[in-house]
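Readers outside the structure-tokenisation community will struggle with the description of the input data as it stands. I therefore recommend that a typical entry be quoted early in the introduction. An entry of this sort, consisting of the sequence and the corresponding backbone structure tokens, reads as follows:
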Amino acid sequence: MTSDATDPDGAGENADEWQDAAAAANAAAESRPEGRGWPERHTGPVIRRRGQVLSGTTDQRLLDSRGATDWVHSDPWRVLRIQSEFVEGFGALAELGPAVSVFGSARTAVDSREYDAGVRIGRALAEAGFAVITGGGPGAMEAANKGALAAGGVSVGLGIELPFEQGLNPYVDIGVNFRYFFVRKTMFVKYARGFVVLPGGFGTLDELFEALTLVQTKKVTRFPIVLFGSEYWGGLVSWVRQTLVAEGKASPADLELFHITDDVDDAVERVTKESA
């Protein structure tokens, strides 16, 4: 293991000095009875033993101005970035009021029936007094945001950093971009009272099964999930019933965790009435 990998503070530990210290610790350890008297150092909640003991202290490494800047890309620094994303998300959405998250494919064509359904669902949710939260992208997400905006409701987009440029659609009133999927998914659930799931791909399935798992395990309660489009979702629902439930991998009661429909009014009524 290199000094970069074992020095999360990354404040310029000299590699040769560190290796000498590790070698000395290992040599000393070999002379002791197994399991006793190993070199040990406590650094906050972390315990290092044997060759993983570092010379110096955390403060010393922090205040040492020499050395590389690899620490910027280390896991401890990422924790602060993750924390900052939660803070920004909570701050932006804390006063949002009642909302429903709408999911669906970014590839949904503007002239498709699915896009039209998304617009109507977004409009109906806004008219019912709910803010509409989407992933902020194009396709079905854009449709729901467009409908909400047209009805004078609050239109929210929670974007995600991707290898290809996507950006937030122009119908978003409040937009937050995230680096991490798991932070973004927390926002979808925390500030929504239910999900409407339009036809979509892997991302939509990920969000759907995340919500189903949270409801099944009672991490969230009174959280309606509506699948819009019986022809699209029918195969998946049949597989859940005929494979998961039939083989005992899920309970028959789990089939009650979601509702499938082709009617916009039914979808909106289900997700708003049950979440009220």
Notes: Residues 1-15 have pLDDT under 50 and may be disordered. Residues 3-69 form one domain. The beta strands are 40-43, 46-49, 99-103, 131-134, 155-160, 174-178, 195-197, 225-228, 259-261.
